[in-house]
Design brief:
The protein is mainly α. The protein contains 7 helices and no strands.
């Protein structure tokens, strides 16, 4: 069965985004994705740093976090249905994620100043380790592995969604605490996010120099989404361990 039959929240996992005309004289390149990703990371870092300063001055980050999350969701949906607009929508997505991450990590930065930097370091190291494992074919992305990663990713996202909905009714699920169950869930989510990078690498390799040029933005969106997810899981895990111990 082709991976294109799978539906997931990460665009890089979905073959839909690689369909279309291959006749364009300019095609998707690894260099294009790299520079666009660096651009996005720098924007996110700048917004996050600014929000940290506001938080230290006593400003609440609640609305920044909520607004950034909703903005990222809306732009993601728009990118999904209007991929030709990706060159406009992905920068907006990056800005929204900057506000979300700035608000999300401000608590850790204020109470555990070193944690966000450590989480960034772990994310970077994990990225290059997974890239090396992929390039050396120590881990081969097979159909079975793809299906396992996609299934695990969707399952984790469903758990988060249900937990978020329940929170509106005052019901606190175990994944948000500092219990061993919550820590174990974060460890599992971090591992799945790490392996999700393999699918990003695989699709970029498959469609480089083939897909139309504008789809570099779509590939960038998927890669950044995975990196941000990994960073969030690592930061949450470190924060729980810091509180517990």
């Amino acid at each position: 069965m082709s991976l294109r039959n799978f539906k997931t929240s990460n665009p890089v996992f979905n073959g839909y985004f690689w369909d279309g005309s291959k006749s364009s004289t300019k095609t998707m390149s690894v260099a294009g994705i790299f520079f666009k990703s660096i651009f996005g990371i720098l924007i996110i870092a700048a917004i996050t740093g600014y929000l940290w300063k506001l938080n230290e001055a006593g400003m609440s980050m609640r609305w920044f976090t909520l607004g950034g999350m909703l903005g990222a969701i809306v732009t993601s949906i728009l990118i999904s249905v209007r991929q030709n607009w990706a060159h406009i929508l992905v920068p907006l997505y990056v800005i929204a994620k900057g506000f979300f991450l700035g608000g999300f990590s401000s608590y850790a930065h204020r109470n555990f100043p070193d944690l966000p930097y450590q989480a960034i370091g772990v994310t970077i190291v994990t990225f290059f380790v997974m890239l090396l494992l992929y390039q050396l074919r120590i881990i081969v992305v097979t159909k079975k592995l793809r299906s396992v990663i996609i299934t695990a990713t969707i399952s984790i996202m469903v758990v988060y969604l249900i937990s978020w909905i329940l929170s509106f009714f005052g019901i606190k699920t175990y994944i948000w605490g500092t219990s061993w169950f919550a820590i174990g869930f974060n460890v599992l989510a971090s591992i799945v996010a790490s392996f999700a990078l393999l699918l990003d690498f695989d699709y970029i390799e498959r469609y480089k120099n083939k897909a139309p040029k504008y789809k570099e933005w779509v590939a960038t969106w998927g890669l950044l989404a995975t990196l941000i997810w990994l960073y969030i899981e690592v930061l949450r895990l470190m924060q729980k361990l810091a509180i517990r111990f």
